[in-house]
Design brief:
Blueprint lengths: L2 H14 L5 E4 L4 E5 L6 E5 L6 E9 L3 E9 L4 E5 L2 E3 L7 H13 L8 E6 L8 E9 L14 E6 H10 L5 H12 L4
Parallel strand pairs: 4-9
Antiparallel strand pairs: 1-2, 2-3, 4-7, 5-6, 5-10, 8-9
Helix pairs in contact: 3-4
């Protein structure tokens, strides 16, 4: 690590959260080292060293499921997944973030009843995050629009999405968890 990088990380640490355990932080994430029985362990949280929270929304019309195609730079490809995102400020809950992301990514404003499918911790070995999973059924397949984050939003038959989760064509943990939880509750 260069002297410049070290000074930069120290400045970020001091300005953002003033916590000595945080090695790097920006508006979106923080990287901390915590002690474990195996030695120092890297943990990624939100920009203040707290658990990263968010929401994901599984939407169905009883026949189809809405998925968005999004470029995921961390894995180097675009993936089909349910709409999701992080909270926007401490006052927003994970469930509200899921609804907001649905609106932002697809243009759909969900107004019906929601079933909370529980939480998911997508990678508890590295990420300090907890995401609300939501399900709602809409009356008809709504028209969609996309924002700058999403390449495309499309409706797919429930069986096709379920089979894609089973056979590994869909690898997104949020989507797989929401599909299987909704299926186990006979919601889809």
């Amino acid at each position: 690590m260069s002297a410049h990088t070290t000074l930069y990380n120290e400045a970020i640490r001091e300005e953002t959260c003033n916590r000595p355990d945080i090695q790097y932080a920006n508006d979106y994430i923080s990287v901390s080292y915590v002690d474990s029985e195996f030695g120092p362990y890297t943990v990624v949280g939100d920009g203040e060293g707290l658990p990263r929270k968010g929401g994901a929304s599984l939407i169905s019309d009883g026949v189809n499921i809405l998925l968005v195609k999004q470029n995921r730079y961390a894995v180097g490809m675009s993936t089909w997944e349910i709409p999701r995102g992080a909270i926007s400020g401490r006052a927003e809950s994970g469930s509200l973030a899921g609804l907001r992301e649905l609106r932002e990514e697809t243009g759909i404003i969900a107004t019906g009843e929601f079933t909370h499918l529980g939480y998911i911790q997508p990678d508890s070995g590295v990420l300090n995050s907890r995401v609300d999973l939501l399900f709602t059924q809409v009356e008809t397949t709504a028209e969609t629009t996309t924002d700058h984050e999403v390449e495309k939003a499309s409706w797919f038959p429930i069986k096709q999405v379920f089979d894609a989760c089973v056979n590994g064509d869909i690898e997104d943990a949020y989507t797989i968890a929401a599909i299987f939880r909704a299926r186990a509750r006979n919601l889809i």
